[in-house]
Design goal:
The complex is a heterotrimer of chains A (317), B (319) and C (448).
Chain A: H1 11-24, H2 30-33, H3 36-62, E1 65-68, E2 72-75, H4 79-85, H5 88-120, H6 127-135, H7 142-153, H8 159-167, H9 180-204, H10 209-217, H11 222-233, H12 235-250, H13 254-259, H14 273-282, H15 287-316
Antiparallel strand pairs in A: 1-2
Chain B: H1 2-6, H2 14-35, H3 45-69, H4 73-78, H5 90-136, H6 142-154, H7 157-170, H8 178-184, H9 188-201, H10 204-212, H11 217-228, H12 230-245, H13 249-254, H14 263-273, H15 283-315
Helix pairs in contact in B: 3-15, 5-8, 5-9, 5-12, 5-15, 9-12, 9-15, 10-11, 12-15, 14-15
Chain C: H1 2-25, H2 32-35, H3 37-40, E1 52-58, H4 64-74, E2 77-83, H5 89-101, E3 108-112, H6 116-121, H7 142-148, E4 149-150, E5 153-154, E6 157-158, E7 164-169, H8 170-176, H9 184-197, E8 204-205, H10 210-219, E9 225-228, E10 231-234, H11 239-253, E11 257-258, H12 265-273, E12 278-282, H13 285-292, E13 300-304, E14 322-326, H14 333-344, H15 347-354, H16 362-366, H17 368-372, H18 383-392, H19 404-409, H20 411-420, H21 425-442, E15 446-447
Parallel strand pairs in C: 1-2, 1-3, 8-11, 10-15
Antiparallel strand pairs in C: 3-14, 4-5, 6-14, 7-12, 7-13, 9-10
The chains are: A mainly alpha (317), B mainly alpha (319), C alpha/beta (448).
């Protein structure tokens, strides 16, 4: 679920590539082919329908009902949706993930970009080692990551506590309510900076040497090279990474869920919308309302993702 | 300018691809030599130090994990995290982890492998087929497909979990490996990656040529396209493997029998033991287990890095 | 197309084969409750040894498997499978899901006392009163019994109990020359003394715990929850509650409570190194202390829970503990009940006590062996003497909500601010009360 993706649709480019050629070929051969694509896309879509479409359809269906512990199920129309729009806990969660998004994503992508540029510049000692080591946190499952960082954050016996004792500082408690979001942001950044770095780095590697040679001949300095050659080349990757991260931010669940036991007063049951729907469903048995909240969040996320994608493709063109 | 320069590159044959990428690794050195000094690349110590800070950031928690795995439980609860314990108990911990509760850790490991082989393997297969289809064919409904896929993934998973559970329950699949494997077969990222990769890596002329020769679509795919898609395949395989290996939330809902837990859920259950009334805290096993859980993935990365690097490279070429 | 389909079929086929192979070689039959209807529904009323059938039990308690083994030995025709489907709330979630889906429901499930009303109202539990359980009232201590005998039926039999007592680190008290408190006033004084002597030392920890808060109110004689079928009253605006919040507010204001969450790593460390000096908690704690705080072996002791009134009779409350219940979806209810009786009042009790459980049966609590047992971790103290007295002194009449699991889950949302940002505790509890009432009404109960 952390790998939700939205594409920078390559459809534009492919038709440009394909059409001129296809047009030359035997046109009649096209018509019977028109359904063949489904043969290949079919298996994916079949499983997808089962795993996603059906539950979403079911969620939409139950979101217009209400089931009570006492009294059974009734049709309530759009009541659940109206309730969600007026629910302060829901908006608290939405506000929080939006804040998270605005702060954590630029920082994480920024660091990833800098490291990618640094490695690509060829000026590092041991760059292969850097590449692998920075990527390693991605391989660590959320449960383990939360365990590790949970220790580090311990204000009494963890690393923070130790530093406080040892150095006489008083680093504020990362698990306290003021800092918890930052603390979670740190864990997410830690986990994904290597992954994003690699995406950027791979894009950088596709830049043909000829460009660099030309720039050198023109006497371009390093920062010119970065600004005018490297950055434009990775704009596509930036858009992609941005979209992954946006969806990931809105869906934030694993880290708060696992840290909740350590910081029950900092992480409320409605800390993020995903955590809210989880608690609504599983602690409160309010499946209908949870479904409505989820649909709203889904639409909201989709809209934002499309906006970003549109702006991303416009930049490319 | 970038457009015309980069497109021709990856559309070669497999050999071409490999050839295209290997000289690239030599290129940057050449590049910086030319740009800066004549004889050697100017390795910058400051830059290395700054990047090393990021490195430390990435590795410090892992270091804690390794150090903690070498401590006994008593030490864990009484010594500072980065200091060594009073005795070196790594091997003892490993032995205990593998033996606890009749070796259930090994069972969990086997489960995880099963889910990864079938789940990630299946996801890669579906992504290849789907990406190829999207890249090389036009058909009704094509534009809608990706929009629908992304839209569905944008809906918070926690609310989908209950309908998914109820559905799978109707089909009698809950508490079986299928309830974990089937949802892992969908990798939108894999689909997207294969789509862009197939667009670039499989030249339509080759396909047309094969069709002219009378090959069916399936043979065209299997014999012409598939080999060309190899680097992208490995990339997708690696990413879906990580996702499946670390899968947490849905298995938590779907599985109730510890015999079928993957490692992540198993570790979680062990961790919860410490907070149970009358439970036996096994922090040392949780920590050693965590270490053992991440080692196979890291090993896989290290061994396969050559492949996924080239895969990612080719896959993210835009215009 | 055909070749790809074929290949795919082969792939799928071999995958199915592989999975099947694994399934078969694995511990067979994970979904017992589904398949058990045929052969297992006979037997149950016959004498021991004649029973036969399969049972699926969900329990996290580590002593239950031993009981199951003993039962199987006494009844060779019986096969019991125990699954640890999660502890506490995790299992309740799973149980709810299974009941709702109508499949995979176990025959028996371990359920903590505060959660029993919720499952009973949801009709997930079988009423075992008619099967003989209603005769067992006198076998159990009043606290646990009052939690399983509700709404005119019996919805489980107590497995263990958790009468509250004061666990304290004697070494710390001796070191600072502080007396062990017997009343809550003395407790407050001791808290001040200890913290003044060493700023890292706290008399106890608290970051907001619904179970603790309700148990304290229980001891104070409060009845915030009154349940009569689907009519529920939630009222925390009573003198008993105020007595608790006044005391606890002082503790919070003067920072006498360690800001450590129970059951965390920090907590275990604190118990082990003497920076958390006492725990007012249920009688099941000894095993957890032994496991989680080995460094403090020999330092801890137990004393009766501090009282609100000096010199009055001992009054305590229950904190935690669970029962084992037969589910209404079970196909082997008779066999399940037979096991339940075995585990809860017959031979099973001794087995579990040997495993470290604190029993809920009167017989056990009065037995000489039990009372004389010495606990090495506690310096050889005979803990059970104190704990048995505590069990007998549980204040009567307490009720839990039919949706206590949910109410507890939002406790920290509402009351947490009292611990971290200075909102008065009573305000936090009032907010909790309102949220609880709102939920109840929304769910169809009549709540005020």
């Amino acid at each position: 679920m952390t790998q939700a993706v939205v594409p920078v649709s390559p459809a534009g480019q492919t038709t440009e590539l394909k059409n001129p050629r296809r047009g030359d070929r035997a046109k009649p051969a096209r018509a019977p082919r028109s359904w063949r694509g489904w043969g290949f896309v079919g298996p994916f879509m079949l499983v997808f329908a089962l795993v996603f479409i059906a539950p979403i359809a079911y969620s939409l269906y139950i979101s217009v009902f209400r089931t009570q512990l006492v009294g059974g199920t009734q049709f309530v129309g759009l009541d659940n949706y109206t309730r969600a729009f007026g629910d302060p806990q829901f908006w608290d969660g939405v506000g929080r993930v939006s804040l998270f998004l605005v702060i954590q994503v630029p920082i994480m992508l920024g660091i990833a970009m800098l490291v990618a540029l640094a490695i690509d510049s060829g000026r590092l000692y041991g760059k292969d080692f850097f590449r692998i080591a920075v990527f390693m946190p991605y391989a660590v499952p959320a449960v383990v990551a939360a365990l590790m960082w949970g220790f580090m954050y311990g204000p009494r016996f963890g690393l923070v506590g130790y530093i406080n004792d040892f150095m006489g500082w008083s680093i504020p408690n990362p698990l306290g309510p003021q800092w918890i979001l930052l603390a979670i942001g740190n864990i997410v950044t830690w986990s994904f900076v290597g992954y994003n770095m690699l995406i950027f780095y791979s894009s950088l590697r596709t830049i043909p040497t000829s460009l660099y040679e030309a720039a050198a001949l023109d006497g371009a300095k390093e920062h010119h090279v970065i600004r005018h050659i490297k950055m434009p080349a990775i704009q596509g990757s930036i858009a992609v990474a941005l979209i992954f991260s946006i969806i990931g931010s809105f869906q934030l669940f694993n880290e708060p869920s696992i840290l909740q036991k350590l910081a029950p007063n900092s992480i409320t049951t409605y800390f993020t919308p995903n955590l809210y729907t989880y608690n609504l469903s599983f602690s409160g048995q309010q499946y209908n309302y949870a479904a409505a909240v989820a649909i709203i969040m889904g639409v909201f996320t989709m809209v934002i993702a499309y906006v970003v994608q549109l702006r991303g493709t416009r930049k490319d063109a | 300018m970038t457009t015309t320069a980069s497109t021709p590159r990856p559309t070669g044959t497999t050999a071409g691809d490999a050839a295209a990428t290997t000289p690239r690794s030599a290129a940057p050195r050449l590049r910086s030599r030319r740009a800066h000094s004549v004889d050697k690349p100017r390795r910058n110590v400051l830059l290395t130090v700054l990047t090393a800070i990021v490195l430390l950031y990435a590795l410090v928690p892992l270091a804690w994990l390794v150090i903690s795995s070498s401590k006994t439980q008593a030490d864990l609860l009484s010594t500072f995290g980065f200091a060594p314990g009073s005795s070196f108990a790594l091997f003892e911990n490993i032995a205990n982890t593998l033996a606890y509760n009749d070796g259930i850790f090994l069972r969990w490991l086997a489960n995880t492998l099963l889910y990864v082989v079938l789940g990630a393997g299946g996801a890669t297969l579906l992504a290849i087929l789907g990406g190829y289809g999207l890249a090389k064919f036009t058909f009704p409904g094509k534009k809608a497909i990706f929009a629908v896929v992304i839209g569905a993934v944008a809906v918070p998973g926690t609310a989908l979990a209950v309908p998914q559970f109820l559905m799978f329950s109707q089909m009698g699949l809950t508490n079986t490996p299928w309830s974990v494997i089937i949802p892992s077969l969908i990798s939108p990222f894999g689909l997207y990656l294969m789509w862009t990769f197939a667009t670039q890596a499989v030249p339509t002329e080759l396909m047309e040529a094969a069709r002219m020769d009378g090959a069916s679509e399936a043979r065209t795919f299997a014999q012409v396209a598939l080999p060309l898609l190899a680097p992208g395949t490995v990339t997708v395989l690696l990413f879906t493997t990580v996702a499946t290996w670390n899968n947490y939330f849905l298995p938590l809902i779907m599985l109730k029998d510890p015999q079928w837990y993957p490692l992540t859920i198993g570790l979680n259950a062990w961790n919860a033991q410490a907070s149970t009334v009358g439970g036996q805290a096994i922090f040392d096993l949780v920590i050693t287990g965590s270490l053992l859980t991440i080692i196979p993935l890291i090993a896989a990365f290290l061994l396969l890095q050559r492949y996924w690097q080239s895969g990612l490279t080719a896959g993210s070429v835009k215009e | 197309m055909s070749m790809t389909t074929n290949r795919r079929r082969v792939l799928r086929g071999s995958a199915i084969a592989a999975a099947l192979a694994l399934t078969l070689t694995a511990c067979g039959g994970t979904d017992r409750a589904d398949e058990g209807s045929g052969s297992g529904s006979d037997g149950g009323t016959a004498a021991e040894g004649d029973l036969s059938g399969d049972l699926l039990i969900w329990a996290w308690d580590s002593t239950v498997p031993d009981v199951a083994t003993a039962f199987e030995e006494a009844n060779p025709g019986v096969d019991i499978e125990i699954v640890n489907a999660g502890t506490g709330n995790d299992q309740y979630t799973a149980l709810q899901n299974a009941i709702q889906a109508g499949s995979g429901v176990p025959d028996l499930a371990q359920i903590e006392y505060f959660a029993i009303p919720q499952f009973a109202i949801g009709e997930g539990l079988a009423d075992i009163g008619p099967m003989g359980a209603s005769d067992l009232e006198d076998s159990f201590t009043p606290g646990p019994w009052s939690s399983v005998a509700i709404n005119g039926g019996v919805y489980g039999l107590p497995l263990d109990s958790g009468p509250m007592a004061l666990f304290y680190n004697e070494a710390v008290f001796t070191e600072h020359g502080v007396e062990i408190p017997t009343t809550w006033d003395e407790y407050l004084e001791a808290a001040r003394a200890l913290h003044a002597a060493d700023p890292n030392l706290y008399i106890t920890n608290d970051t907001g715990d619904a179970g603790f808060t309700t148990s304290m109110i229980w001891q104070a004689g409060g009845h915030p929850y009154e349940v009569d079928g689907t009519n529920v009253t939630v009222d925390f605006d009573t003198p008993e509650v105020k007595q608790f919040t006044d005391l606890w507010q002082t503790m919070i204001d003067e920072e006498l409570l360690a800001p450590v969450t129970s059951w965390s790593d920090d907590w275990n460390q604190g118990l082990g190194n003497g920076t958390i000096a006492t725990l007012t908690i249920g009688a099941w704690m000894p095993t957890n202390l032994e496991n989680g705080a080995p460094a403090a072996e020999g330092d801890w002791r137990v004393a009766p829970m501090p009282q609100w009134e000096a010199g009055a009779d001992l009054v305590t409350s229950e904190n935690g503990g669970s029962a084992l219940s037969v589910t209404s979806a079970s196909q082997n209810a008779d066999l399940a009940y037979a096991f339940l009786e075995f585990a809860s009042v017959n031979d099973g009790v001794q087995i579990r006590v040997d495993g470290g459980a604190f029993p809920a049966t009167v017989a056990e609590l009065e037995s000489e062996d039990f009372l004389n047992k010495e606990f090495p971790y506690f310096g050889g103290q005979k803990l059970n003497e104190v704990l048995a007295e505590s069990a007998k002194a549980v204040a009567p009449g307490w009720q839990y909500l039919p949706y206590q699991v949910y109410a507890n889950s939002i406790f920290n949302d509402n009351v947490g601010s009292a611990y971290i940002s200075g909102t008065p505790l009573s305000d936090g509890i009032a907010s909790w009360q309102d949220a609880t009432i709102a939920y109840g009404n929304e769910q169809g109960f009549t709540v005020d």
